[in-house]
Design brief:
The protein is of the alpha/beta class. Helix content is 27%, strand content 31%. The longest helix is centred in the N-terminal third of the chain and has 35 residues. The N and C termini lie far apart (145 Å).
């Protein structure tokens, strides 16, 4: 009984050895022979050509072009082959797979709206998306609060290359001067306040008043809290 099992083990072992030897023969002899029967090809150089032209040339040479990989480039036109693998003039077998990298052109970024932001917030907003803050100039504005961006050099929504520069205009605030309340002040006090505010004393008129002492301002035009330009004359009515 033990002898029978030994015979079976010997036969099984011999079978495994035979299978191994057969595999070695196929790998070392048969496959190289089959490969040697396939024509070799010198890979065409397609770098710098359009993807359609490159694919056609490689296919005509008996090669298989795989799905191209795309990559942004600031120097190579969109749709142009940037690199290939295997490289140009490499000797390969017919049917070899060829891998191409195609330019996507310059990477562009959509410009955000900076309107109403501070310079600091605008700079951070641009940095986060790969853009830069450029020149900062200042202008007076009645519509935008002081130190807020009133305009930008490139409009929001425009597409520009990454690392692009956006210049902005920042508000200095309103050009207007608020008219102070002068009623109840002496004429001398009112004149001093107007001069300090950048305004001038206009026409003086006098009116009898039982409620105010002589020389006290009864009314003025424009009225208090009006917004006017610097240098505007203010007409004053004074108690007689």
């Amino acid at each position: 009984m033990n002898w029978t099992w030994k015979k079976i083990g010997v036969i099984a072992g011999a079978g495994l050895v035979a299978v191994f030897l057969l595999g070695v023969m196929v790998d070392q002899l048969l496959l190289p022979w089959i490969v040697s029967m396939t024509d070799t090809i010198s890979v065409p150089g397609v770098v710098g050509k359009s993807v359609s032209t490159a694919s056609q040339e490689l296919a005509n040479a008996g090669l298989v072009v795989m799905e191209p990989r795309e990559q942004y480039s600031a120097s190579i036109a969109k749709g142009t082959v940037m690199s290939q693998l295997p490289y140009a003039n490499a000797t390969v077998k017919e049917g070899r797979r060829i891998y191409l990298t195609i330019s996507k052109g310059i990477e562009t970024i959509r410009v955000p709206s900076l309107y109403g932001l501070t310079v600091r917030d605008a700079r951070l907003s641009l940095m986060r998306i790969g853009l830069q803050l450029g020149d900062v100039t200042y202008e007076t504005s009645d519509a935008i609060a002081v130190d807020r961006i009133a305009a930008q050099g490139v409009p929001a929504g425009a597409e520009i290359p990454s690392d692009g520069i956006i210049s902005v205009v920042v508000s200095r605030g309103s050009t207007g001067v608020r008219i102070p309340s002068l009623v109840g002040l002496s004429l001398e006090e009112a004149q001093g306040i107007l001069l300090d505010a950048g305004l001038i004393v206009g026409t003086l008129s006098y009116k009898e008043s039982s409620a105010f002492d002589s020389g006290v301002v009864l009314a003025h035009d424009p009225p208090a809290d009006s917004s006017v330009a610097v240098g505007t004359p203010v007409q004053i009515t004074v108690a007689r």
